[in-house]
Design goal:
The protein is mainly α and about 130 residues long. Helix content is about 40%, strand content about 0%. It is built from 5 helices and no strands. It has helices at about 25-35, 70-80, 90-105, 110-120, 125-129. Helix 3 (about 90-105) crosses helix 4. The longest helix is centred in the last third of the chain and has 17 residues, at about 90-105. The chain starts with about 25 loop residues before the first helix and ends with a helix.
Length: about 130
């Protein structure tokens, strides 16, 4: 499959509301520059998602059908690709999720399907407080 996907090729996955004009490698490099790591996530200790949008090396990870999908990616799918800033996710982390969301959704078929399903359901964050 060609890596140059447009939003129509994502089969209903919402297009993010922010511009992602930088090349993909630059978007993950920004996470490294800003010192963002998966361990900074409030859900890190209990999260079993193999692909973390805060991980600068997420492209090297494999997601198998049925494995957990990052809760911040699923929340972003409900908001058109924008990760909500909440007590559990800082502004800097939300921006990091937004930067890699389109690429994760287009590069990982199992995650893309999970995000399409998740986009049709209400947010869990509103009920978690």
């Amino acid at each position: 499959m060609d890596s140059s996907h447009d939003s129509a090729e994502l089969d209903g996955t919402p297009t993010p509301l922010i511009e992602n004009d930088a090349p993909a490698e630059d978007r993950s490099a920004r996470n490294r520059e800003h010192g963002i790591q998966p361990q900074d996530c409030t859900r890190f200790a209990g999260c079993n998602a193999p692909v973390c949008p805060l991980d600068p090396l997420w492209r090297q990870r494999t997601h198998i059908d049925g494995e957990r999908v990052c809760p911040w990616l699923t929340e972003a799918s409900k908001c058109g690709g924008r990760a909500p800033v909440t007590p559990g996710l800082s502004t800097k982390q939300a921006e990091a999720v937004q930067r890699v969301y389109p690429e994760v959704a287009s590069a990982q078929a199992h995650i893309r399907r999970a995000l399409r399903r998740s986009a049709r359901r209400p947010s869990r964050l509103k009920n978690a407080a």
